[in-house]
Specification:
alpha+beta; D-Maltodextrin-Binding Protein, domain 2; Dipeptide-binding Protein, domain 1; seven-stranded mixed beta sheet; 21 strands; Peptide/Ni-bd; SBP_5_CS; signal; transport; SBP_5
Length: 538
Amino acid sequence: MQRSRLAAITAILAGSCTLAACADGGGSATAAAPTVTTSMPAPTGDVDTVTWNLPPGEPPTLDPAQSAIESVSTPLANMCEGLFSFGPNYEREPALATSFDHPDDLTYVIHLREGVKFWDGKPVTPDDVVYSVKRLLDPKLGSSWIGWAERMRSIEATGSHEITIKMKKPDVLIPNFFSTPAFDVVEKAFAESAGKSFGTAGRGVMCTGPYKLASWTQGQNIVLTRNDAWWNTRVKPKVKNVKFTFITDPSAQTAALDSGDVDGQFNVPRAAHVRLKDKGHLLFGQSLSPTFISVLNQNGALSDPAARQALQALIDYKGIIKSVYQGAAQPLRALVPPAAWGYGKDVYQQAYDQLPAPAQDLEKAKSLIAKAPKAKGKIVLAYTTAIEEESRIATAIADAASQAGMHIQLRPLTAEQYGAMFSSPQARAGVDLFLSTGYLDFPEPLTYYQFFTTGNFYNFPAYSNKEYDAAIQAAIATADPAARAREVTKAQTIMARDLVNVPIATQYVNVFYKSALTGLVPRQNYLYTPWATTLGGK
Protein backbone atom coordinates (compact mmCIF):
# COMPACT_ATOMS: atom_id res chain seq x y z
CA MET A 1 0.00 0.00 0.00
CA GLN A 2 1.50 3.33 -0.96
CA ARG A 3 1.99 5.55 2.00
CA SER A 4 0.54 9.01 1.47
CA ARG A 5 2.13 10.26 4.68
CA LEU A 6 1.79 14.02 4.33
CA ALA A 7 3.41 16.60 6.56
CA ALA A 8 3.89 20.27 5.71
CA ILE A 9 7.16 22.17 5.82
CA THR A 10 8.17 25.83 5.78
CA ALA A 11 11.80 25.46 4.73
CA ILE A 12 13.98 22.82 3.10
CA LEU A 13 17.69 22.27 3.00
CA ALA A 14 19.37 25.51 1.97
CA GLY A 15 22.46 25.75 -0.21
CA SER A 16 24.36 22.97 -1.92
CA CYS A 17 26.49 21.58 0.91
CA THR A 18 26.73 17.81 1.11
CA LEU A 19 24.54 16.05 3.61
CA ALA A 20 27.49 15.08 5.77
CA ALA A 21 28.85 18.61 5.78
CA CYS A 22 25.50 20.09 6.70
CA ALA A 23 25.14 17.60 9.54
CA ASP A 24 28.59 18.21 10.93
CA GLY A 25 28.27 21.95 10.64
CA GLY A 26 25.01 22.00 12.56
CA GLY A 27 26.45 19.88 15.32
CA SER A 28 23.08 18.34 16.25
CA ALA A 29 22.73 15.43 13.86
CA THR A 30 23.81 11.98 14.88
CA ALA A 31 24.15 8.67 13.11
CA ALA A 32 23.45 6.65 16.25
CA ALA A 33 20.43 4.39 15.89
CA PRO A 34 17.74 5.04 18.52
CA THR A 35 16.68 2.53 21.13
CA VAL A 36 13.62 0.57 20.02
CA THR A 37 10.81 0.59 22.59
CA THR A 38 8.87 -2.68 22.86
CA SER A 39 6.89 -1.98 26.05
CA MET A 40 5.71 0.83 28.30
CA PRO A 41 4.13 0.77 31.77
CA ALA A 42 0.38 0.26 31.52
CA PRO A 43 -1.74 3.30 32.32
CA THR A 44 -3.56 3.41 35.64
CA GLY A 45 -5.12 6.85 35.62
CA ASP A 46 -8.13 8.14 33.72
CA VAL A 47 -7.68 11.13 31.41
CA ASP A 48 -10.57 13.31 30.28
CA THR A 49 -9.09 14.57 27.00
CA VAL A 50 -5.90 13.93 25.04
CA THR A 51 -5.07 16.36 22.24
CA TRP A 52 -3.30 14.53 19.41
CA ASN A 53 -1.95 16.16 16.28
CA LEU A 54 -2.21 14.82 12.74
CA PRO A 55 0.95 16.08 10.97
CA PRO A 56 -0.47 15.33 7.48
CA GLY A 57 -3.27 17.78 8.23
CA GLU A 58 -7.04 17.44 8.20
CA PRO A 59 -8.29 14.18 6.69
CA PRO A 60 -10.37 14.51 3.51
CA THR A 61 -12.80 11.90 4.85
CA LEU A 62 -13.26 9.33 7.63
CA ASP A 63 -14.50 6.68 5.24
CA PRO A 64 -12.64 3.38 5.86
CA ALA A 65 -12.49 2.96 2.08
CA GLN A 66 -9.92 5.77 1.98
CA SER A 67 -7.89 4.68 4.99
CA ALA A 68 -4.64 4.11 3.10
CA ILE A 69 -3.38 7.57 4.01
CA GLU A 70 -2.30 8.42 7.54
CA SER A 71 -4.50 11.44 8.11
CA VAL A 72 -7.49 9.12 7.69
CA SER A 73 -6.19 5.90 9.21
CA THR A 74 -4.70 7.40 12.40
CA PRO A 75 -8.07 8.48 13.88
CA LEU A 76 -10.11 5.82 12.08
CA ALA A 77 -8.09 2.98 13.62
CA ASN A 78 -9.81 3.82 16.91
CA MET A 79 -13.29 3.97 15.39
CA CYS A 80 -13.86 1.21 12.85
CA GLU A 81 -12.99 -2.46 13.19
CA GLY A 82 -12.31 -5.38 10.92
CA LEU A 83 -12.90 -9.08 11.41
CA PHE A 84 -9.57 -9.48 13.19
CA SER A 85 -6.91 -7.19 14.61
CA PHE A 86 -3.12 -7.14 14.72
CA GLY A 87 -1.36 -7.96 17.97
CA PRO A 88 1.96 -6.38 19.02
CA ASN A 89 3.89 -8.74 16.74
CA TYR A 90 1.29 -8.77 13.97
CA GLU A 91 -0.27 -11.95 15.28
CA ARG A 92 -3.91 -12.30 14.29
CA GLU A 93 -6.33 -11.53 17.12
CA PRO A 94 -10.15 -11.93 17.08
CA ALA A 95 -12.22 -8.77 16.68
CA LEU A 96 -15.63 -8.78 14.96
CA ALA A 97 -14.94 -12.40 14.05
CA THR A 98 -13.90 -15.04 16.56
CA SER A 99 -12.31 -17.48 14.11
CA PHE A 100 -12.34 -18.78 10.55
CA ASP A 101 -12.13 -22.17 8.88
CA HIS A 102 -10.16 -22.87 5.72
CA PRO A 103 -11.62 -26.20 4.56
CA ASP A 104 -9.93 -26.07 1.16
CA ASP A 105 -7.56 -23.82 -0.79
CA LEU A 106 -10.41 -21.71 -2.15
CA THR A 107 -12.76 -21.34 0.83
CA TYR A 108 -12.79 -19.23 4.02
CA VAL A 109 -15.69 -19.61 6.45
CA ILE A 110 -15.68 -16.74 8.94
CA HIS A 111 -17.47 -17.00 12.27
CA LEU A 112 -18.76 -13.63 13.48
CA ARG A 113 -18.84 -12.55 17.09
CA GLU A 114 -22.34 -12.55 18.56
CA GLY A 115 -23.85 -9.57 20.36
CA VAL A 116 -21.75 -6.83 18.71
CA LYS A 117 -23.56 -3.53 18.20
CA PHE A 118 -22.88 -0.38 16.24
CA TRP A 119 -22.56 2.90 18.12
CA ASP A 120 -26.29 3.54 17.57
CA GLY A 121 -27.19 0.27 19.29
CA LYS A 122 -28.15 -1.69 16.18
CA PRO A 123 -26.74 -5.23 15.95
CA VAL A 124 -24.00 -6.14 13.48
CA THR A 125 -25.31 -8.68 10.98
CA PRO A 126 -23.65 -10.81 8.30
CA ASP A 127 -25.37 -8.55 5.76
CA ASP A 128 -23.51 -5.55 7.22
CA VAL A 129 -20.22 -7.39 6.85
CA VAL A 130 -20.87 -8.51 3.29
CA TYR A 131 -22.07 -5.04 2.34
CA SER A 132 -18.98 -3.40 3.86
CA VAL A 133 -16.59 -5.64 1.93
CA LYS A 134 -18.45 -5.31 -1.36
CA ARG A 135 -18.76 -1.55 -0.94
CA LEU A 136 -14.97 -1.14 -0.95
CA LEU A 137 -14.78 -3.21 -4.14
CA ASP A 138 -16.83 -0.70 -6.13
CA PRO A 139 -14.32 0.94 -8.54
CA LYS A 140 -16.33 4.16 -8.41
CA LEU A 141 -15.40 4.53 -4.75
CA GLY A 142 -11.71 4.58 -5.65
CA SER A 143 -10.56 2.56 -2.65
CA SER A 144 -6.98 1.29 -2.79
CA TRP A 145 -8.16 -1.75 -0.81
CA ILE A 146 -9.81 -3.14 -3.91
CA GLY A 147 -6.65 -4.99 -4.91
CA TRP A 148 -6.90 -7.77 -2.33
CA ALA A 149 -10.00 -9.21 -4.03
CA GLU A 150 -8.46 -9.78 -7.46
CA ARG A 151 -8.82 -13.55 -6.99
CA MET A 152 -12.11 -13.51 -5.08
CA ARG A 153 -15.07 -15.29 -6.63
CA SER A 154 -17.77 -14.44 -4.10
CA ILE A 155 -18.57 -13.34 -0.56
CA GLU A 156 -21.95 -14.06 1.00
CA ALA A 157 -23.75 -14.60 4.27
CA THR A 158 -24.06 -18.34 4.91
CA GLY A 159 -25.47 -18.34 8.43
CA SER A 160 -26.87 -16.15 11.19
CA HIS A 161 -23.30 -15.40 12.33
CA GLU A 162 -21.28 -16.61 9.37
CA ILE A 163 -19.96 -15.42 6.03
CA THR A 164 -18.14 -17.42 3.38
CA ILE A 165 -15.53 -16.21 0.92
CA LYS A 166 -14.82 -18.22 -2.23
CA MET A 167 -11.66 -17.65 -4.26
CA LYS A 168 -10.94 -18.26 -7.93
CA LYS A 169 -7.34 -19.18 -7.15
CA PRO A 170 -5.41 -19.86 -3.95
CA ASP A 171 -4.06 -16.72 -2.30
CA VAL A 172 -1.99 -16.97 0.87
CA LEU A 173 -2.35 -13.25 1.54
CA ILE A 174 -6.09 -13.29 2.19
CA PRO A 175 -6.12 -14.02 5.96
CA ASN A 176 -3.79 -11.06 6.56
CA PHE A 177 -6.30 -8.70 4.99
CA PHE A 178 -8.96 -9.77 7.52
CA SER A 179 -7.11 -7.49 9.98
CA THR A 180 -7.00 -4.45 7.71
CA PRO A 181 -9.53 -1.77 6.68
CA ALA A 182 -10.33 -3.95 3.65
CA PHE A 183 -12.68 -5.70 6.08
CA ASP A 184 -13.73 -2.78 8.28
CA VAL A 185 -17.43 -3.13 9.02
CA VAL A 186 -19.84 -0.22 8.70
CA GLU A 187 -23.60 -0.16 9.21
CA LYS A 188 -25.26 -0.85 5.87
CA ALA A 189 -28.42 1.18 6.50
CA PHE A 190 -26.43 4.20 7.71
CA ALA A 191 -24.01 4.12 4.78
CA GLU A 192 -26.77 3.73 2.21
CA SER A 193 -28.71 6.59 3.76
CA ALA A 194 -25.63 8.83 3.85
CA GLY A 195 -24.66 8.09 0.26
CA LYS A 196 -21.85 10.35 -0.90
CA SER A 197 -21.94 12.12 2.48
CA PHE A 198 -20.70 9.01 4.28
CA GLY A 199 -17.48 9.79 6.10
CA THR A 200 -17.86 13.56 5.79
CA ALA A 201 -17.90 16.11 8.60
CA GLY A 202 -21.61 16.58 8.08
CA ARG A 203 -22.65 12.93 8.32
CA GLY A 204 -19.83 10.92 9.82
CA VAL A 205 -19.63 7.13 9.94
CA MET A 206 -21.25 4.31 11.87
CA CYS A 207 -18.89 1.63 13.20
CA THR A 208 -18.33 -0.54 16.27
CA GLY A 209 -14.96 0.52 17.69
CA PRO A 210 -13.83 1.78 21.10
CA TYR A 211 -14.23 5.43 20.08
CA LYS A 212 -17.04 7.12 18.18
CA LEU A 213 -17.14 10.39 16.33
CA ALA A 214 -18.35 13.18 18.64
CA SER A 215 -17.70 16.17 16.38
CA TRP A 216 -15.79 17.35 13.37
CA THR A 217 -15.27 21.09 13.12
CA GLN A 218 -13.71 21.50 9.72
CA GLY A 219 -10.47 23.40 9.72
CA GLN A 220 -10.12 23.06 13.49
CA ASN A 221 -10.41 19.59 15.02
CA ILE A 222 -12.01 16.16 15.18
CA VAL A 223 -13.15 14.85 18.55
CA LEU A 224 -13.68 11.18 19.35
CA THR A 225 -15.38 10.07 22.53
CA ARG A 226 -15.16 6.70 24.26
CA ASN A 227 -17.72 4.07 23.31
CA ASP A 228 -18.58 2.67 26.72
CA ALA A 229 -20.71 -0.02 25.07
CA TRP A 230 -17.75 -1.50 23.19
CA TRP A 231 -17.98 -5.27 22.93
CA ASN A 232 -14.37 -5.77 24.10
CA THR A 233 -14.96 -5.63 27.85
CA ARG A 234 -11.43 -6.93 28.48
CA VAL A 235 -10.10 -3.49 27.53
CA LYS A 236 -11.25 -0.34 29.29
CA PRO A 237 -9.80 2.75 27.58
CA LYS A 238 -8.45 5.25 30.11
CA VAL A 239 -8.83 8.25 27.80
CA LYS A 240 -12.39 9.55 27.52
CA ASN A 241 -11.93 11.95 24.60
CA VAL A 242 -9.31 12.24 21.86
CA LYS A 243 -9.14 15.59 20.07
CA PHE A 244 -7.23 15.60 16.77
CA THR A 245 -5.68 18.84 15.58
CA PHE A 246 -4.28 19.57 12.12
CA ILE A 247 -0.98 21.40 12.62
CA THR A 248 1.12 20.74 9.51
CA ASP A 249 4.08 23.11 9.90
CA PRO A 250 6.98 21.25 11.59
CA SER A 251 8.05 24.29 13.61
CA ALA A 252 4.49 24.82 14.81
CA GLN A 253 4.18 21.12 15.66
CA THR A 254 7.34 21.30 17.75
CA ALA A 255 6.16 24.41 19.57
CA ALA A 256 2.75 22.89 20.31
CA LEU A 257 4.27 19.68 21.68
CA ASP A 258 6.89 21.59 23.68
CA SER A 259 4.33 23.92 25.26
CA GLY A 260 1.84 21.16 26.04
CA ASP A 261 -0.89 22.57 23.81
CA VAL A 262 -0.69 19.22 22.01
CA ASP A 263 -0.20 16.06 24.08
CA GLY A 264 1.14 13.75 21.40
CA GLN A 265 1.87 12.98 17.77
CA PHE A 266 3.18 10.22 15.54
CA ASN A 267 5.98 11.08 13.09
CA VAL A 268 7.53 13.94 14.98
CA PRO A 269 9.77 16.12 12.74
CA ARG A 270 13.42 15.05 12.96
CA ALA A 271 14.53 18.58 13.74
CA ALA A 272 12.41 18.51 16.92
CA HIS A 273 13.88 15.34 18.42
CA VAL A 274 16.61 17.03 20.44
CA ARG A 275 14.26 19.71 21.73
CA LEU A 276 11.56 17.26 22.80
CA LYS A 277 13.51 14.27 24.10
CA ASP A 278 13.54 15.57 27.69
CA LYS A 279 10.01 17.01 27.56
CA GLY A 280 8.16 13.70 27.44
CA HIS A 281 8.33 10.28 25.88
CA LEU A 282 10.04 10.28 22.47
CA LEU A 283 9.87 6.63 21.45
CA PHE A 284 10.94 4.63 18.40
CA GLY A 285 9.71 1.36 16.93
CA GLN A 286 10.54 -0.98 14.07
CA SER A 287 9.02 0.05 10.77
CA LEU A 288 7.62 -1.70 7.72
CA SER A 289 8.23 1.48 5.75
CA PRO A 290 10.58 1.97 2.76
CA THR A 291 11.58 5.28 1.23
CA PHE A 292 12.51 4.78 -2.41
CA ILE A 293 12.63 6.23 -5.90
CA SER A 294 10.32 4.78 -8.53
CA VAL A 295 11.61 4.94 -12.09
CA LEU A 296 8.33 5.95 -13.71
CA ASN A 297 9.65 6.57 -17.19
CA GLN A 298 11.83 3.75 -18.48
CA ASN A 299 11.78 5.05 -22.06
CA GLY A 300 13.54 8.38 -21.62
CA ALA A 301 16.88 9.36 -20.16
CA LEU A 302 16.74 6.34 -17.85
CA SER A 303 15.98 3.76 -20.54
CA ASP A 304 19.58 2.54 -20.49
CA PRO A 305 20.23 0.24 -17.48
CA ALA A 306 23.57 2.04 -17.03
CA ALA A 307 21.70 5.29 -16.33
CA ARG A 308 19.64 3.63 -13.58
CA GLN A 309 22.79 2.07 -12.15
CA ALA A 310 24.39 5.52 -12.13
CA LEU A 311 21.40 6.89 -10.23
CA GLN A 312 21.78 4.16 -7.64
CA ALA A 313 25.51 4.87 -7.31
CA LEU A 314 25.27 8.64 -6.85
CA ILE A 315 22.92 8.61 -3.82
CA ASP A 316 24.62 9.51 -0.53
CA TYR A 317 22.97 6.85 1.64
CA LYS A 318 25.16 7.44 4.70
CA GLY A 319 24.61 11.17 4.51
CA ILE A 320 20.85 10.73 4.27
CA ILE A 321 20.78 8.46 7.33
CA LYS A 322 22.99 10.83 9.32
CA SER A 323 21.64 14.24 8.33
CA VAL A 324 18.07 13.74 7.17
CA TYR A 325 17.01 10.98 9.55
CA GLN A 326 19.50 11.77 12.35
CA GLY A 327 20.32 8.08 12.66
CA ALA A 328 16.66 7.02 13.01
CA ALA A 329 16.72 4.97 9.81
CA GLN A 330 18.67 2.23 8.06
CA PRO A 331 19.81 2.04 4.41
CA LEU A 332 18.05 -0.51 2.22
CA ARG A 333 19.42 -3.08 -0.22
CA ALA A 334 15.92 -4.10 -1.35
CA LEU A 335 12.53 -2.47 -1.52
CA VAL A 336 11.07 -4.41 1.44
CA PRO A 337 12.85 -3.74 4.77
CA PRO A 338 14.09 -6.62 6.95
CA ALA A 339 11.53 -5.83 9.67
CA ALA A 340 8.87 -7.02 7.20
CA TRP A 341 10.28 -10.54 6.91
CA GLY A 342 7.46 -12.22 8.78
CA TYR A 343 8.58 -15.77 7.87
CA GLY A 344 11.44 -17.54 6.10
CA LYS A 345 13.92 -15.11 7.64
CA ASP A 346 16.96 -17.23 6.83
CA VAL A 347 15.95 -17.32 3.16
CA TYR A 348 15.33 -13.58 3.06
CA GLN A 349 18.56 -12.79 4.89
CA GLN A 350 20.67 -14.88 2.54
CA ALA A 351 19.13 -13.26 -0.54
CA TYR A 352 19.40 -9.78 1.00
CA ASP A 353 23.08 -10.21 1.79
CA GLN A 354 23.77 -11.07 -1.84
CA LEU A 355 22.41 -7.72 -3.05
CA PRO A 356 24.85 -4.79 -3.39
CA ALA A 357 25.30 -2.75 -0.23
CA PRO A 358 23.94 0.80 -0.72
CA ALA A 359 26.95 3.11 -0.97
CA GLN A 360 27.68 6.32 -2.81
CA ASP A 361 30.29 6.01 -5.58
CA LEU A 362 30.41 9.17 -7.67
CA GLU A 363 33.27 7.91 -9.82
CA LYS A 364 31.28 4.83 -10.74
CA ALA A 365 28.27 7.02 -11.51
CA LYS A 366 30.37 9.27 -13.77
CA SER A 367 31.74 6.26 -15.65
CA LEU A 368 28.27 4.79 -16.17
CA ILE A 369 26.85 8.09 -17.37
CA ALA A 370 29.69 8.45 -19.87
CA LYS A 371 28.66 5.10 -21.38
CA ALA A 372 24.96 6.04 -21.60
CA PRO A 373 24.42 9.14 -23.80
CA LYS A 374 20.72 9.35 -22.95
CA ALA A 375 21.57 9.64 -19.24
CA LYS A 376 22.70 13.22 -19.85
CA GLY A 377 19.20 14.29 -20.82
CA LYS A 378 16.77 16.04 -18.49
CA ILE A 379 15.39 13.81 -15.73
CA VAL A 380 12.39 15.08 -13.74
CA LEU A 381 12.28 14.01 -10.08
CA ALA A 382 8.94 14.61 -8.35
CA TYR A 383 8.61 14.73 -4.57
CA THR A 384 6.36 16.31 -2.00
CA THR A 385 7.33 19.47 -0.15
CA ALA A 386 4.92 18.33 2.56
CA ILE A 387 7.44 15.81 3.92
CA GLU A 388 10.57 17.50 5.22
CA GLU A 389 12.82 14.47 4.87
CA GLU A 390 11.87 13.90 1.25
CA SER A 391 12.47 17.52 0.34
CA ARG A 392 15.99 17.25 1.68
CA ILE A 393 16.63 13.88 0.04
CA ALA A 394 15.44 15.15 -3.35
CA THR A 395 17.70 18.20 -3.09
CA ALA A 396 20.70 16.06 -2.12
CA ILE A 397 20.12 13.63 -5.00
CA ALA A 398 19.89 16.47 -7.53
CA ASP A 399 23.13 17.96 -6.19
CA ALA A 400 24.96 14.63 -6.37
CA ALA A 401 23.60 13.98 -9.86
CA SER A 402 24.98 17.32 -11.02
CA GLN A 403 28.42 16.36 -9.70
CA ALA A 404 28.23 13.08 -11.64
CA GLY A 405 27.13 14.69 -14.90
CA MET A 406 23.43 13.87 -14.73
CA HIS A 407 20.80 16.62 -14.95
CA ILE A 408 17.95 16.10 -12.50
CA GLN A 409 15.23 18.72 -12.50
CA LEU A 410 13.23 18.84 -9.27
CA ARG A 411 9.46 19.00 -9.40
CA PRO A 412 8.12 19.87 -5.94
CA LEU A 413 4.53 18.79 -5.33
CA THR A 414 1.93 20.13 -2.95
CA ALA A 415 0.21 17.63 -0.68
CA GLU A 416 -2.74 17.51 -3.08
CA GLN A 417 -0.52 17.00 -6.13
CA TYR A 418 1.43 14.30 -4.31
CA GLY A 419 -1.78 12.41 -3.50
CA ALA A 420 -2.84 12.60 -7.14
CA MET A 421 0.37 10.82 -8.19
CA PHE A 422 -1.00 7.62 -6.65
CA SER A 423 -4.28 7.67 -8.53
CA SER A 424 -3.91 9.68 -11.74
CA PRO A 425 -1.77 8.78 -14.78
CA GLN A 426 -2.16 12.40 -15.88
CA ALA A 427 -0.53 13.58 -12.65
CA ARG A 428 2.47 11.36 -13.39
CA ALA A 429 2.88 12.63 -16.96
CA GLY A 430 6.31 14.10 -17.63
CA VAL A 431 7.79 12.63 -14.43
CA ASP A 432 10.80 10.33 -14.72
CA LEU A 433 11.46 9.66 -11.04
CA PHE A 434 9.10 9.71 -8.05
CA LEU A 435 10.41 9.86 -4.50
CA SER A 436 7.96 8.46 -1.98
CA THR A 437 7.59 6.63 1.32
CA GLY A 438 5.38 3.58 1.54
CA TYR A 439 4.51 0.99 4.12
CA LEU A 440 3.55 -2.65 4.14
CA ASP A 441 0.22 -3.46 5.74
CA PHE A 442 1.70 -6.48 7.50
CA PRO A 443 5.10 -8.28 7.53
CA GLU A 444 4.71 -10.10 4.23
CA PRO A 445 7.13 -8.93 1.47
CA LEU A 446 4.85 -10.42 -1.16
CA THR A 447 2.27 -7.69 -0.55
CA TYR A 448 4.64 -5.02 -1.86
CA TYR A 449 6.36 -6.98 -4.59
CA GLN A 450 3.05 -7.94 -6.17
CA PHE A 451 2.47 -4.25 -6.93
CA PHE A 452 5.08 -4.49 -9.68
CA THR A 453 3.51 -7.37 -11.59
CA THR A 454 2.30 -6.66 -15.12
CA GLY A 455 -0.92 -4.66 -15.11
CA ASN A 456 -1.11 -4.04 -11.36
CA PHE A 457 -2.79 -0.76 -10.37
CA TYR A 458 0.28 0.37 -8.41
CA ASN A 459 2.73 -0.58 -11.14
CA PHE A 460 3.18 3.05 -12.17
CA PRO A 461 6.25 2.41 -14.37
CA ALA A 462 4.28 -0.26 -16.32
CA TYR A 463 7.13 -2.64 -15.54
CA SER A 464 6.73 -6.05 -17.16
CA ASN A 465 8.96 -9.07 -16.69
CA LYS A 466 7.63 -12.59 -17.24
CA GLU A 467 10.10 -14.18 -14.84
CA TYR A 468 9.17 -11.68 -12.16
CA ASP A 469 5.44 -12.23 -12.69
CA ALA A 470 5.88 -16.01 -12.58
CA ALA A 471 7.78 -15.87 -9.29
CA ILE A 472 5.14 -13.66 -7.67
CA GLN A 473 2.25 -15.80 -8.91
CA ALA A 474 3.98 -18.93 -7.60
CA ALA A 475 4.53 -17.27 -4.23
CA ILE A 476 0.89 -16.24 -3.90
CA ALA A 477 -0.15 -19.88 -4.26
CA THR A 478 2.56 -21.32 -1.97
CA ALA A 479 1.56 -21.96 1.64
CA ASP A 480 4.93 -23.32 2.81
CA PRO A 481 6.81 -20.31 4.29
CA ALA A 482 10.33 -21.24 3.19
CA ALA A 483 9.21 -22.16 -0.33
CA ARG A 484 7.22 -18.93 -0.60
CA ALA A 485 10.22 -16.92 0.59
CA ARG A 486 12.36 -18.49 -2.13
CA GLU A 487 9.90 -17.40 -4.82
CA VAL A 488 9.64 -13.89 -3.39
CA THR A 489 13.42 -13.47 -3.19
CA LYS A 490 13.69 -14.70 -6.78
CA ALA A 491 11.44 -11.79 -7.78
CA GLN A 492 13.36 -9.45 -5.48
CA THR A 493 16.63 -10.30 -7.26
CA ILE A 494 15.05 -9.65 -10.66
CA MET A 495 13.71 -6.29 -9.49
CA ALA A 496 17.10 -5.30 -8.08
CA ARG A 497 18.73 -6.17 -11.40
CA ASP A 498 16.22 -4.23 -13.49
CA LEU A 499 16.19 -1.26 -11.08
CA VAL A 500 12.55 -0.44 -11.54
CA ASN A 501 13.00 1.35 -8.24
CA VAL A 502 15.94 2.44 -6.09
CA PRO A 503 15.52 1.71 -2.37
CA ILE A 504 17.01 4.34 -0.07
CA ALA A 505 16.13 3.78 3.59
CA THR A 506 13.67 2.45 6.13
CA GLN A 507 12.96 4.85 8.97
CA TYR A 508 11.83 3.99 12.47
CA VAL A 509 8.29 4.71 13.57
CA ASN A 510 8.34 7.44 16.19
CA VAL A 511 5.85 8.89 18.62
CA PHE A 512 5.99 11.62 21.24
CA TYR A 513 3.61 12.13 24.13
CA LYS A 514 3.85 14.09 27.36
CA SER A 515 5.31 12.69 30.56
CA ALA A 516 1.96 12.46 32.34
CA LEU A 517 0.83 9.80 29.84
CA THR A 518 1.99 6.21 29.40
CA GLY A 519 1.12 2.92 27.72
CA LEU A 520 1.47 3.62 24.01
CA VAL A 521 4.25 1.71 22.20
CA PRO A 522 5.19 2.87 18.68
CA ARG A 523 4.44 0.18 16.11
CA GLN A 524 3.65 0.39 12.41
CA ASN A 525 0.27 -1.23 13.03
CA TYR A 526 -1.03 1.88 14.81
CA LEU A 527 -2.57 2.61 11.41
CA TYR A 528 -4.99 -0.31 11.77
CA THR A 529 -5.32 -1.00 15.50
CA PRO A 530 -7.04 1.06 18.23
CA TRP A 531 -3.87 2.60 19.67
CA ALA A 532 -5.72 5.14 21.84
CA THR A 533 -6.99 2.28 24.03
CA THR A 534 -3.41 1.70 25.24
CA LEU A 535 -2.91 5.33 26.31
CA GLY A 536 -3.70 6.77 29.72
CA GLY A 537 -2.41 8.51 32.80
CA LYS A 538 0.26 7.26 35.16
